[in-house]
Amino acid sequence: MIKVGPVGSNGGSIWEENGRSEVAGIFVSYTENRIQSLQFLFYENGKFVQSNKHGSQFSENFCAHVFDYPSEFLTSISGSYIGDGYLSTGLDAIKFNTNEGSYGPFGRTEPTSSSKQFNFQLRNRLFGGFHGTMSPSAVESIGIYLKPVVSSMINLKGGSLKGGSLKGGSQKVKDEK
C-alpha cells in the first residue's frame, strides 16, 4: 500500500483503516467549524461492516450517506484544516466525491485566512483505506492508502499512454511475478 498524508494536526491518537478498500458509506459528525468524528461502512467478505468511530463520541450535527454500492465509489476526498501541522486545530471541513455525486462539505463551508486546503484524487479505483489521528473531541487528521499499481492493471488501448504514446494496437500488459 502507498500511504498518503495525513493532513491536519500531528497530535492525537492514531487510527487506521488500512486495506479496507470497498467503501459503501460515510458517517460524519461535525460543528460549523470542526469535524467531530468519521465512521465508514465497508463491504468485506460478502457483508457490510461498520468501522469504529474516529473522533468524538458526541455529535452536534450528523450526516449519513450510504453509497449505491458497488456501482458508486470514491473518486476524491477534499477539505481543509487550520494551522501548519504543529499548531493545527484539526480538520475543519471535509467533502467526499463519488462517481455519482458529492457529499458535503461538512464543517466549515468557507475557508478562513489560516485554512490549508487538501484534495486527494482517487482515480482508477486505487483506494486502499483511510488513516489519521483523533482526539476525544475531533478528527485531527486524515490520510489515505492507495493500492499499488501492478502491471496487470495496465491496459494499453490504441497504443497511447498518459503523458506519451506508443505505436500499435490494443494490448494488455501481464503481471510479471
UniProtKB/TrEMBL annotation:
It holds the Pfam family Jacalin. One of its GO terms (molecular function) is carbohydrate binding. Keywords: Lectin. Residues 1-148 form the Jacalin-type lectin domain. PANTHER family: INACTIVE PROTEIN RESTRICTED TEV MOVEMENT 1-LIKE, JACALIN-RELATED LECTIN 3. Belongs to the jacalin lectin family. This is Jacalin-type lectin domain-containing protein. It comes from Solanum verrucosum. The lineage of its organism: Eukaryota, Viridiplantae, Streptophyta, Embryophyta, Tracheophyta.
